[in-house]
Amino acid sequence: MNPISGKPEPYQAFTEKYSRLLVSASGIFFMILVVIAAVFGIVIYRVITVSTFAAFGWALIRNNSQVATTGTAVCINFCVIMLLNVLYEKVALLLTNLEQPRTESEWENSFTFKMFLFQFVNLNSSTFYIAFFLGRFTGRPGAYLRLINRWKLEECHPSGCLIDLCMQMGIIMVLKQTWNNVMELGYPLIQNWWTRRRLKREHSHISKSSFPQWERDYNLQPMNANGLFDEYLEMILQFGFTTIFVAAFPLAPLLALLNNIIEIRLDAYKFVTQWRRPLPSQAKDIGIWYGILEGIGILSVITNAFVIAVTSDFIPRLVYAYKYGPCAGQGRAGEGCMMGYVNASLSVFRVSDFEMRSQPRTNGSEMFEEAVKYCRYRDYREPPDSAEPYSYTLQFWHVLAARLAFIIVFEHMVFAIKTLIAYLIPDLPKDLRDRMRREKYLIQETMYEAELERLQKERNEKRRKKERTHHKEWP
């Protein structure tokens, strides 16, 4: 029995409700593990393929083995993403119905959160791997970490991990937007063509123009069961993909803008000519999407701080300019202060310290006229002749401290600016807020006057009853 309305309503026991939520959460966790497993499969493909392409017979592939590996891996990853998206919608629907939400809005919020979480993790997991994990755990020359004690883990492009990240984001963004637009317009076009063909075969004696307008409209495709949910989901995922790694791929907002300009016209054509007229329904706001947008905004600040500090060379260059370069100690970083940076960012390795499996095939005498004894690699490590060979140098710890300090300062500064702008720019304009307050005041006045009038009527009614009783007692 509802204590507020006093009416009976469906009730779910505490143990049953939370057992269903536990099963649903376990399903969500399992599907996220499936995504991680798919990413791990792509990682294994990249590890195996990069060594295969490096020994390829075709010189073009052999000389660009890193780019070829990244390009093919991204295309395979895109196919996996699109296949898993089909599965996720069915799983999200099953888990939401399993929870048995009490109201329709609770059902919509639960389904929306699951669909967004599944597709967001599916779309961005490989991007997070490239941005923050690729090349971080490969070891060093002479002590490489290997997969199944055989394949060396993949490293970043010699120019840095930003190239791989840009390629990953660019290919996936272009392919996904193109695929979505083709499917959104192509599917109803094909369905309507097939319906017209079937009707023409069934009613060959009746011309198309003789059908009334309402019947022609009815023969169009019905709007999908989720309404505008798919449109919202596409825009939110695009917003997340555009903002989370915008520091690594600044072209993403431009591609999103061009896509949205095209999609506005495609959606208009689809709604007007290919779909039946949708039934309007009122909504108070955009619901749980607002909280999701807030979460993406916070996550984008954190990830961009890490991209600038960890993935790019911005902090190492800054540390070199102020601490180790020609301008060290002068408090400035102008022209010429980066002289020698490349040399300082490379460590020295003795060729004789290679593992047996990594020994070079030649000693380099045919190219340099003498045997190569030392080579260079990107890292901050001590030379082989030092007291602690191949240990991290002091510059490494300076760069690490500067990266952590930059992340903290950048996040706090951006969040402070965001809070200040949110305070200075109200959610509602002042005149609209005043009108809402005025409307609320008038409603309260009307209710007060109506209540006062009701009380006066009751008082007058009681007085008349009392007078009639008095007259009956004293005729």
From TrEMBL:
Offer one Pfam family short name for this entry.
Anoctamin
- Every Anoctamin transmembrane domain range: 2-439
Q: Tell me, what is one Gene Ontology molecular-function annotation carried by this entry?
A: intracellularly calcium-gated chloride channel activity
What family does the database annotate?
Belongs to the anoctamin family.
Reading the lineage from the top rank, the first entry is Eukaryota
Annotated GO CC locations = plasma membrane
Main location class:
membrane
> Where would you find this protein in the cell?
Membrane
Its membrane topology is listed as: Multi-pass membrane protein
Full protein name: Anoctamin
Please give the residue ranges the record annotates as the region Disordered.
Answer: 455-475
List membrane-spanning regions. 28-61, 68-88, 116-135, 156-175, 236-258, 286-310, 400-425
Keywords from the named record: Membrane, Transmembrane, Transmembrane helix
InterPro entries according to UniProt: Anoctamin (IPR007632), Anoctamin_TM (IPR049452)
